[in-house]
Amino acid sequence: xxxxxxxxxxxxxxxxxxxxxxxxxxxxxxxxxxxxxxxxxxxxxxxxxxxxxxxxxxxxxxxxxxxxxxxxxxxxxxxxxxxxxxxxxxxxxxxxxxxxxxxxxxxxxxxxxxxxxxxxxxxxxxxxxxxxxxxxxxxx
Length: 140
Description:
The chain is α/β, with parallel strands linked by helices.
């Protein structure tokens, strides 16, 4: 069984078929100054392609898109990754996803650098991975 990379504060979680990764797409996309703001939908599509091509050590990968980024990727509850379009607040949807997965017994890691969101997902039992760590695991 492979291990997940340590989180920014040194925690690590076991990578397994039972584990889950929830990606704050807006935060991950916004973590690199590559012109994403000129084409949010295109940036979302590129992130989704990289996630789909990656060999990540999680049984479930969920990516949450909000706002204009939703135009770049169709919602797909059966995909790899699972694509969720936030009906309102992306942060609220990320917390909901993390809470649901954790309550179902899946060790859950959320990818974000948003301090407010970090506190909220830790409160529901999830661990955190930085956007930079995730991007370092994705193909170019």
